[in-house]
Design a protein that fits this description.
The chain is of the alpha/beta class and 170 residues long. The protein has a domain of 109 residues: UDP-N-acetylmuramoyl-L-alanine:D-glutamate ligase, CATH 3.40.1190. The protein contains four helices and ten strands; from the N terminus they run E-E-E-H-E-E-H-E-E-E-E-H-E-H.
């Protein structure tokens, strides 16, 4: 766990509000084949918190900043995993929106034998992350922050662009 009480390197750490996409990456590392013949490999994916805003929030919290995050998840197991992972790193998730109509953003990240990453996901419109309700943006939370971070993915589609623009005009 990260402590926000004291950090000798940064005595005045910022409070940061982050709005945007948070999701779960299912990382699949493909093995390097040792033979010229076809083989059958069983590969267990590794889950990791992800999304542009999710990764930013985790990194800032690990550096000791106070982070409040505005994002949407589905009421599924990926959403529960993501909430737990963010809270374990002291990211404030009180402004999360849980949608029963959409699923939590999750992306399969396939790392090939050369180390190149390939991303595979479902259509945007089904993701909760692009459907954060504008009326859930908290004026009070944003004005207490030193910084507001948004992501380019927040402007793609759904209701999240309106929520992001609203947060920037507070």
């Amino acid at each position: 766990m990260v402590s926000h009480t004291s950090n000798p390197m940064h005595p005045k750490l910022s409070q940061v509000t982050v709005i945007g996409d948070a999701g779960v990456d299912a990382i699949i590392q493909l093995p390097k084949s040792q033979k010229d013949e076809t083989s059958f490999n069983i590969i267990q994916p590794t889950l990791s918190p992800g999304g542009t805003a999710g990764n930013t929030s985790l990194s800032l919290a690990r550096l000791g900043h106070v982070v409040k995050m505005f994002f949407a998840i589905g009421s599924d197991s990926y959403g529960k995993y993501l909430l737990s992972a963010l809270e374990d790193t002291n990211v404030n998730t009180e402004h999360v929106h849980v949608s029963a109509d959409h699923f939590t953003l999750h992306v399969n990240v396939i790392i090939d034998h050369l180390g190149e990453r390939h991303f595979a996901g479902n259509p945007y419109e089904n993701w909760a992350s692009v459907n954060y309700p504008p009326d859930k943006v908290s004026h009070e939370a944003i004005t207490k922050s030193s910084w507001l971070h948004t992501t380019g993915n927040s402007f793609d589609r759904g209701t999240t662009p309106l929520s992001t623009i609203r947060s920037m005009t507070i």
